[in-house]
Design goal:
Radius of gyration: 17 Å
CATH class: Mainly Beta
Oligomer: single chain
Largest sheet: 7 strands, antiparallel
CATH superfamily: Galactose-binding domain-like
Number of strands: 12
Shape: elongated
CATH architecture: Sandwich
Length: 170
């Protein structure tokens, strides 16, 4: 059967470009919409973020992890974040873990800025190709209660495979 393969975007604020499904932020009260956050010390250039938005969270040392959950139907997913430069008195280190479909560990993303003085945009923090074409739930969590972790979620892209049917009149 013919298939149509397409990439769809899940924006941090407007959600899935086709279904409209929104990311789930856990716990929701710990997350802030970056461009409008009055308390956020890290300030990326809004014009360089996808759709000019991102969601901001910092897991401070000793605090519970925070998470992001993305639901999608497809064969691959890629998550993109904004990475801050090294800063004084601000957590600029990333420590993320990934699990798929309520349990299967998909690795980690660790990053500590050493010399960069600029924000990095469109940074792929996880790439999961070759998934079964079915409904999936990706959970992305901070994972450093000792040193803390920043998490500036910008967007995700997933690959959707649709089977098409043709009807022919005889």
């Amino acid at each position: 059967m013919p298939q149509v393969i397409s990439n769809r975007t899940i924006d941090d604020e407007s959600g899935d470009s086709v279904s409209g499904a929104l990311p789930t932020y856990i716990p929701a009260s710990f997350w802030r919409l970056g461009p409008t956050c009055p308390d956020c010390a890290v300030r990326p250039d809004q014009s360089l973020a996808f759709n000019r938005t991102w969601h901001d969270n910092s897991q401070f040392p000793g605090n519970q992890p925070v998470s992001l959950s993305l639901d999608f139907v497809g064969t691959a997913i890629y998550v993109f974040c904004i990475v801050p430069p090294i800063e004084t008195n601000v957590i600029s280190r990333y420590s993320l873990t990934f699990s798929l479909d309520d349990g299967a560990s998909q690795g980690t993303f660790l990053y500590s800025p050493t010399s960069n003085t600029d924000f990095l945009y469109n940074v792929s923090v996880v790439s999961l190709p070759s998934l079964a074409n079915k409904a999936h739930k990706l959970l992305v969590s901070t994972d450093d209660e000792v040193n803390g972790s920043i998490f500036l979620f910008d967007y995700a892209v997933y690959t959707c495979v649709q089977v098409t049917f043709s009807l022919f009149a005889i």
